[in-house]
Amino acid sequence: xxxxxxHAAMRHVPARGWTTSAIAAGAAxxxxxxxxxxxxxxxxxxxHAAVMARLALLAPVKSLWPEALALCGRPDAVGxxxxxxxxxxxxxxxxxxxxxxxxxxxxxxxxLATAYHTIGLYLLTDAPALSxxxxxxxxxxxxxxx
Length: 146
Description:
Layout: H1 2-10, H2 13-16, H3 20-29, H4 37-58, H5 65-72, H6 78-95, H7 104-122, H8 129-144
Helix pairs in contact: 1-3, 4-8, 6-7, 7-8
């Protein structure tokens, strides 16, 4: 049911954005009541907010981002970079209300870390980071529920 809702809602995102309106339209497409919005909106919205907050912290130093990535890739810094990513992902999932203790915990954490680092790589381009984060969060949400 949730998988069908995500896929249906994703078809409405280009016209409505990542909003409750898109989810409600998707719910109608798969014959779910409007209250089905609550199945998705809370956790995904909070993950999106966590990523956006993290990006907002990076925005003032975007010009130095290539140097930061180079430093994080040094052998003596990899452990600290992985710890920082792990802490961010743990905090973001806790903020979203995830309390899973099964194997999905690993999949969710790896997925969010991948999405977050994809945004980090995107920061190396001249495109604004905040414009791509919504798209990546939508893709990530789709990944979570497939």
